[in-house]
Amino acid sequence: MISAGHFWRQLHTFGLWGYDPNPWILQMIDPVLPGGRARYLQSRQAQETLHEEFFTSVQQWTVMASLVLIGVSALFVRQGWPHRMLGLTAIIVFVVIANAAVTGVLSNVEDRYQARVIWLVPLLAGICVLEWLDHHPRQDCEEQLP
Fold first, then answer.
1. pTM beyond 0.90, yes or no
2. What pLDDT digit, counting tens, does each position of 113-131 carry?
């Protein structure tokens, strides 16, 4: 029961948090990038001035709008989605769910785990729009052709 709860929480937990300066990075930057410590200390991450809250909000609204767009697309496509779209949708749904299951159950619930794959949802929504535009050309363009 606890694992199912972690899975469900992980499925809904994604964000752009946790980019605070990491002491390990500060310790390892000179051996890996000689002379890079000064530039890192001037970065927004080291100064903790990243706009995490704003971009997390943008990400959440984008995912919600994408899910609505995908749902509307699935409902209103008259001839059904092409096989490629169905296959891509199945892969993306599997990856998003499997990622939440593996990370939520075997590790712990953290925003960064689901944020790694959640971008696939807006990608799918964009492809739905392109597919719709491909099958529903504008009337004006067709009328202008000789």
1. no
2. 899 999 999 999 999 999 8
Kindly state the tokens that stand for 47: 């100064």
Burial class (CB in 10 A: 0-12, 13-18, 19+), 122: middle
The structural domains of the chain, with segments of one domain joined by +, span 2-144
